[in-house]
Amino acid sequence: MVQRTPRIVVTVQSPEHARNEEVAWRKNDRYIEGVRRHGGEVIVLNEDSSPAEREAAFATMDGLLLSGGADLDPALFGEQPHPTTVVEPGRDALEQAAFATAEERRVPVFGICRGMQAINVFRGGSLVQDLEGHTSPAYPAPEATSHDLDIEPGTRLEEILGENVASVNTYHHQAVRPEQVGQGLRISGYSSHADGDLVEALEDADPERWLMAVQSHPERTEFTSPEFENLWASFVAAAREYAAR
Predict the structure, then answer these.
(1) Residue at 159 is within a domain
(2) Residue pair 66/118 in contact by the 8 Å Cβ criterion
(3) Is residue 201 part of a domain?
């Protein structure tokens, strides 16, 4: 039997709504490349995608990648916005719908940075709206800040990355604290901060469900440990397995 190429829906910022359209296209391409390197077929959606495009993508997706970007609307977790918060309501609505479908159909989900925060909020969790010390020069600057990564033993993340990854790049001013984690999620990685530990990675508490999220940006391969390529591979492999059902 010929194996079908897994269809991966990738939600991204609409370049037409970005502060710098060219940079937004370049950033979006990095997520697309991550999926394609491992044999996935990419279906890109943004807030300008039509209802028909969304419906068709959700109906046929074998995996969902929620990428990085602007802040989630704090109203989604019952808070007023911090002065630094920059929201994209149209994208929030798109990703809520995409995630709800992924939950219903139990397709593999991979969240990156904003994507991790979105998964946490959509599962009933909340966020720290502004955090000092975890930002880097804006893309495409040739340098990045890094911080430590402590991987929890016995997690899917440890199985995929191993025990040797000690640090990750850092591009976020919002974060998740352990007490803010949403329902059905397991913390698989931590990073330290002056105000207390932060969640660096999440996965589904159900070992049968491939749902993983990281706060760092593994699509920025020039600032990422090579072991993270295994995470991309595992995601696409999970989508391929889903497609074969």
Answers:
(1) yes
(2) yes
(3) yes
In a domain? residue 75: yes
Catalytic site includes residue 134? no
The arithmetic mean of pLDDT across residues 216-236, rounded, is 95
Split into its structural domains, the chain has a count of 1
Domain holding 76: CATH number? 3.40.50.880
Check residue 82 and report its DSSP letter: P
CA-CA distance, 156 to 174, in Å (whole number)?
24
pLDDT at 37: 97
Helices and strands in the chain: count of H runs, count of E runs: 6, 10
Catalytic-residue membership of 172: no
Cα–Cα distance, 245 to 239 (Å, whole number): 10
Instruction: Give the active site residue among 113, 172, 173, 203.
Output: 113
Token representation of residue 27? 């950033």
Domain interval for residue 195: 7-243
- Condensed to tens digits (0 to 9), the pLDDT of residues 42-70 reads 999 999 999 999 999 999 999 999 999 98
The residue from 47, 88, 203, 219 that is catalytic is 219
Residue 1 domain-assigned (yes or no):
no
